[in-house]
Design a protein that fits this description.
CATH superfamily of the largest domain: Divalent-metal-dependent TIM barrel enzymes
Strand order of the largest sheet: 1-2-3-4-5-6-7-10
Radius of gyration: 23 Å
Order of helices and strands: HEHHEHEHEHHEHEHHEEEHHEH
Helix content: 40-55%
Largest sheet: 8 strands, parallel, barrel
CATH topology of the largest domain: TIM Barrel
Structural class: alpha/beta
Distance between the termini: 50 Å
Length: 296
């Protein structure tokens, strides 16, 4: 082989190696930076005061911001068909609703019927009241109740779930209630809607839960904190008044780190919430704009 031919071959081999490396890195760079949320949702509790005055008009404003999904926390006297109609009119879907703990017994069949008419996939219990949490075996009671609800929703082609605050991450009799729920609830019957903000506020790491319990978190609540609050397990706490909440992306929570584990967690629905915004529409608009532009 001539010197010229050898140099040419080395040149081509080197060029091919560089090209392959560049292509490899560019592909993986694209993958790492182009994950995004396809459909951003909002918990309508955020705009509840507006909905009391103008139910249809408020839902229309939510859609105009750009949201594609909404989660209900009350219907203000509207029938299931009326709720379904206003959603269709505004190009929205409602994958989930919040239902209080005392509606999970005799009232639950009617809750399922209402939710199914609207077209929902999930029925979520948003919390357990403090007076009930004083019972020493409340978390076992809750798990049993949730499993029964899960059986009923499964028969209806739906899914039951639980939404946390921060008290579930504080020790009770040496155990974390959230861990007890995950242990005692049937993973096929009961999913978790993790409120990422309240978990962080309590000092928990959502990513560690995603790693330990993969696929059990199809919904998450997305809201932010300016500072980590001082918290306790009880007392007359009005969540949102006792912490310094802010719009998503303007606080201390590392959203890219959390959402990088979205597939592992099983997240399908990202739901914005702010418990007490001063200007509700402006608040959900800022949060939407941040999440719409977020890549990880």
């Amino acid at each position: 082989m001539s010197f010229h031919a050898m140099n040419r071959r080395r040149f081509l081999e080197t060029a091919a190696t560089i090209s392959a490396a560049t292509l490899f890195s560019s592909r993986f760079g694209w993958a790492a930076g182009e994950h995004k949320i396809n459909k951003i949702g909002v918990q309508l509790y955020t705009v509840r005061d507006l909905m009391k005055e103008d139910f249809d008009g408020t839902i229309a404003k939510v859609a105009q911001v750009g949201y594609k999904e909404v989660e209900f926390a009350g219907y203000f006297g509207h029938t299931a068909q009326q709720v379904k109609d206003v959603l269709q009119k505004n190009g929205l879907t409602a994958p989930s609703t919040h239902v209080q703990y005392d509606e999970l017994d005799e009232k639950f069949p009617s809750v399922i019927e209402f939710s199914k008419t609207v077209g929902m996939d999930y029925i979520i219990c948003p919390w357990i009241p403090e007076d009930l949490r004083k019972s020493p075996d409340i978390w076992k009671q809750a798990s049993d109740k949730f499993n029964k609800c899960g059986e009923q929703t499964k028969k209806a082609g739906m899914q039951f779930g639980y939404h946390n605050h921060w008290f579930e991450f504080l020790p009770t009799n040496g155990k974390l209630p959230y861990d007890e729920l995950l242990k005692d609830c049937n993973p096929d019957l009961v999913k978790m809607e993790m409120d990422l903000c309240w978990a962080v506020a309590a000092g928990a790491d959502p990513v560690k839960y995603f790693e330990k319990y993969p696929g059990r978190f199809p919904l998450v609540h997305v809201k932010d904190l300016k500072t980590k609050p001082k918290i306790s397990s009880g007392g007359p706490q009005n969540y949102g008044d006792t912490v310094d909440l802010t719009e998503v992306g303007s606080g201390i929570i590392d959203w890219k780190r959390i959402f990088a584990h979205a597939q592992q967690a099983g997240i399908k629905h990202y739901i914005v919430e702010h418990d007490h915004p001063k200007q509700p529409i402006e608040s959900i608009t800022k949060s939407y704009q941040y999440l719409e532009n977020l890549r990880w």
